[in-house]
Design brief:
By secondary structure, the protein is an alpha/beta fold. Helix content is about 20%, strand content about 20%. It has five helices and 13 strands. The protein has helices at about 40-50, 95-105, 170-175, 190-205, 220-230, and strands at about 10, 30-35, 55-60, 65, 80-85, 110-115, 120, 125, 135, 180-185, 210-215, 245-250, 270. The strands form four sheets. A seven-stranded mixed beta sheet has the order 1-2-3-6-11-12-13. The chain has a two-stranded antiparallel sheet with strand order 4-5. Strands 7-10 form a two-stranded antiparallel sheet. The radius of gyration is 18 Å and the shape is globular. The model is unreliable at about 1-15 (pLDDT under 50).
């Protein structure tokens, strides 16, 4: 069965734009239903979360990812995108839309874990071993379902011997080189920013309330800001006109490194997580 591991954090204090969590008045807790299926989250919203006045749910990444079989289907395969189709082991786009509608209708809003720093790992190979069957080739950096090509990655800007992050005291490496082999997107490119914004705006139009930005520390704050600035206001079926999506960013700042979470405050809230 599902592990009911509820990671709660209080959304304390209200301020403008992308800092406001958009939860309904009096609702301050967002639960993290990690790896839950969309159909189960919809039921949980109606059965428990709505009646008990929870504010929202942070969900696992909804976009198509690589299928990894060794080890067998680990949780972290969902942090390796292949496309921005809403198609994972949590469910397809229709099931996702149904969840958002049903949760929103009982006042529990959906916060998406957005994987926008990278695509899948460089050793992922070529084929259709992906959750929606989209073809990709990591050797040629071809993700035709987006589409991205080798022109859309940071290889030319990384100067380490193997293309990987080797030294966390060098902010350029942390942002321009590959995090554990993950193919690093060139987020300064207008084309790449547009594809990511299109993905996030599709989710906004469906009715989500905000985004956790995975691996924010590995992206330049200015690139994140440029993408956030392209995001549409939330769907007025559920949210007041002019409401911005809530943005919270994963910046692991334990001290001792040159990159600090304060560099990201201009983009949205920061959540230190591991």
């Amino acid at each position: 069965g599902n592990m009911k591991l509820l990671l709660l954090f209080a959304a304390v204090g209200l301020c403008g734009a992308q800092y406001n969590p958009n939860t309904k008045p009096g609702r301050t807790s967002i639960v993290h239903l990690f790896e839950w299926r969309w159909a189960d989250i919809a039921s949980e919203c109606e059965r428990f979360l709505g009646p008990n006045e929870f504010g929202g749910v942070q969900i696992s990444p909804p976009n198509e990812n690589i299928i990894i079989t060794n080890p067998d289907r680990p949780w972290w395969e969902r942090y390796q995108p292949v496309s921005y189709k809403i198609c994972t082991r949590s469910g397809n786009e229709q099931q996702f839309r149904d969840m958002v509608t049903r949760c929103n209708n009982v006042g529990v809003y959906i916060y998406v874990d957005a994987i926008i720093n990278h695509m899948c790992g460089s050793g992922g190979g070529a084929g259709t071993h992906s959750t929606c069957g989209s073809y990709f080739n990591t050797g040629s950096e071809d993700f035709s379902a987006v589409p991205y090509s080798n022109l859309d990655f940071n290889d030319g800007k990384c100067y380490t011997s193997n293309g990987e992050i080797q030294n966390y005291n060098d902010p350029n490496q942390v942002r321009n080189c590959r995090l554990v082999g993950l193919l690093d997107l060139a987020l300064e490119k207008d084309y790449v920013r547009g594809k990511i914004a299109d993905y996030m705006n599709n989710l906004i139009s469906i009715g989500v309330a905000g985004f956790r930005l995975d691996a924010a520390k590995h992206m330049w704050p200015g690139d994140i800001k440029a993408i956030v600035n392209r995001l549409q206001n939330l769907n007025t079926k559920w949210f007041p006109s002019g409401t911005k999506p809530f943005i919270f960013q994963e910046v692991i700042d334990l001290g001792g490194e040159p990159i600090t979470s304060s560099e990201y405050f201009d983009n949205g809230r920061d959540r230190k997580s591991t």
